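Handout, page 2. Input:
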Amino acid sequence: MSTGQSTLPKLSPGADTAAGRPARTHAPRLRALDGLRLIAALMVAAYHYGGRDGEVSQAWGTSPKTQFPSLHQWFAYGCLGVQVFFVISGFVICMSGWGKPLRSFFASRASRLLPSYWAAVILVTAVFALPAVAYKAVSPSDALLNLTMLQQPLGVDRVLGVCWTLWAEVRFYALFALCVVLPGANRRRIVLFCAVWTLAAAIAQASGEATLNIALMPEYAPFFIGGVGLYLLHLDRRDMTAWGIVLVSWLIGQHYAVARLWHAPDPHFFSYRSSGTIMLVVTLGFVAVGAIALGFLNRVNWKWLTVAGALTYPFYLVHEHLGWVAIELLHRRLGLPSAATIALTVASMLLLAWLLNRFVEKPLTPFLRKHLNPISARLH
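Output:
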């Protein structure tokens, strides 16, 4: 998921300095982007609470099909919130990484990702270790390895179910850092990055080579690349090359979403998603980020959206596994109806996200940034 801030420098199109980095002017905060982040996170929460089977059925005591006989079909589309996050991430990382040296880019990403992530890993491990909690905790050794964010490629049990998306984000950051940030960002280099990654991802898919697929992520690449193209449109809406990047990325992205999530009607599956609705949700994700990029949502500038944006990342980290615990407590032990249980579970996870933002992110993010990039800290 995207974890960048929306108060970011806007760059003058085509204005490159002698160092190869663009001239920078300050842009207003894109608060609509903060709101879209929260909507995407709530989509994923709806999927985890009522749009799938698995451990959440243990929390409810029955299948979510029983709890939400009509709504579970719609909740099942919530997993596409991840693709929306990836489009947002492409937009934000291009915006924030353009004009930064590599060390500063690394410091900003690490300081933004790690504090809440470490806290969430520790918190979920501790809660799952309680005797009253029926869910399996990972071993102490695996929990420690989870702190590195490398548990998935190393084949270790995940403390946080959602962290597979962070592994995709980290690979995108690495590709963008090596291909764009390190040599110095400019429009030509970013366009080349998008074109080469699109072609290379297609080749990786065709080759069936596991290593290439891991590195190039053909299934998720079009969403990141589409977000990058949308940032180029944010700089210049008349940029026809950027329109081409976005269009090709949408075409490829909807294909992968349908290929992964659609199946013929089958009673053995938890739910049936129509290909048309999958395509519609993916399209709406691109359109929403595009509307923000082109300035159509500049009037959506309410200050509370800044808070929503700040809560999205910690909420995303804790909502799934700790949500199971909350659902079991509220529904099975306290006897609350399903709708009230979901509403209170979401509210409790947002409250926990606020606590993580207030007492973990706010003190630790600037501390990490300062020590990972002391030169930049002294300049500011």
